[in-house]
Amino acid sequence: MVNLEVNFCGVNFKNPTVLASGVLGVSGESLHEVVENGAGGVTSKSIWLEGHKGHKNPVIIATDNYVVNAVGLSDAGIEKARNEISEYKKQCDAPLIANIVASKIDDFAEITKKISELNVDLIEVNISCPNVEVEFGRPFACDIKSASEVTETVRKNTKTPFSVKLSPNVDNIGEIAKACEESGADAITAINTVGPGMRINIEMRRSILKNKVGGVSGHAVFPIAIRCIHDIYKNVKIPIIGTGGVSTGEEAIEMMIAGASLIGVGSGVYYRGIKVFSHITEEMNAWCDKNNVKNAQDLIGSLLD
Ligand SMILES: Cc1cc2nc3c(=O)[nH]c(=O)nc-3n(C[C@H](O)[C@H](O)[C@H](O)COP(=O)(O)O)c2cc1C
User: Fold this and answer.
1) 126 CB under 6 A from ligand 1?
2) How confident is the model at residue 52 (pLDDT cuts 50, 70, 90)?
3) Band (25; pLDDT cuts 50, 70, 90)
4) Going by C-beta distance under 8 Å and a sequence separation of 6 or more, which residues neighbour residue 88?
5) Nearest-angstrom CA–CA distance, 126 and 140
6) Of 138, 192, 134, 143, nearest to 168 (Cα)?
7) Could you state, in order of their start, the residue ranges of all structural domains in the chain?
8) Which of 17, 19, 21 to mutate to test the pocket of ligand 1 (most atoms within 8 A of CB)?
9) C-alpha angle with apex 219: 217 to 222, nearest 5 degrees?
10) Strand partners, 205
């Protein structure tokens, strides 16, 4: 029997898979459904202090090899999220990670206070979305000083453990993770989407996405995610939620060997449906059995030089 349980920042997950932010989790009910289909935990989409519109349709291109999205962090704001979170908690005791976002430091302070009142298990701080640059400028995650400032602000305003979600679109993700650790983060999530990327409808000679560009995820970003997690693992002692291109048990195991403790799954839902979580855990079980691994936690950071 393989033990897939992971203790992450003092919170117990029955297996390492978690729904990545923004992909399915829009209501308490849909988050619950993800858990019923085998996820060890769920992450909400990014929650703003006030409602946020997002981009116009079409906002998504899903192909066999990658997904490009320009959803643009649409959300109804913290008051609506409050109801969804309480709905989820009534139905389900699998850990809930509440992902928060803001465009300025003061708003991060405010949303952190508000989300902490809701007794969520963990907070994930999104400072790395690449497709809202036109509205808000370079993401905080692209610069050590800005990433540290947000992290310090969140730390001052909550006792709940929190993870800072980083961008792969930098050349020093390990250093940025280290700065977040020194500024009080309990964990790091990596990666957010890559890019932005763009596709063109050649008959129309127009970009397929209304927003022109969007963040790239899915199979194509898996090697980038593995390298980022490896860089982060070498630089910090806090645990990592590894995310990016995972849709099989073997990929989840590779990501744990690179240094991840939990595995976020987003685009994998497009490839294998909502059952992707139970498929991944079954495949992890089979691999661990075959390779004589009794505890999935023993895989974390087990890469040899
Ligand atoms: C449609 C879509 C919406 C997303 N929305 C969010 C979001 O609201 N907040 C966030 O932090 N990340 C968001 N992401 C990024 C994912 O959480 C994840 O970091 C990224 O897609 C890489 O993982 P994947 O390859 O498993 O999808 C979104 C991704 C997709 C595809």
Assistant:
1) yes
2) confident
3) low
4) 28, 29, 31, 32, 42, 96
5) 9
6) 192
7) 6-48+81-196+215-299
8) 21
9) 80
10) none
Judge if the beta carbon of residue 163 lies within 6 A of ligand 1: no
- The answer to whether the predicted template modeling score (pTM) of the entire model surpasses 0.85 is yes
Task: Give the Å distance between the CA of 266 and the centre of ligand 1.
Answer: 6
pLDDT at 71: 87
CATH number of 6-48+81-196+215-299: 3.20.20.70
Q: b or e along 105-123 (b: 16 or more beta carbons within 10 Å of the residue's beta carbon)?
A: eebbbbbbebbbebebbbb
Residue 210 exposed, middle or buried by CB count within 10 Å (0-12, 13-18, 19+)? middle
Give the pLDDT mean for 240-259.
98
Ligand 1 centroid from CA 264, angstroms:
9
Residue nearest to atom 19 of ligand 1 (CA): 192
Q: Is 153 in the pocket of ligand 1 (CB under 6 A)?
A: no
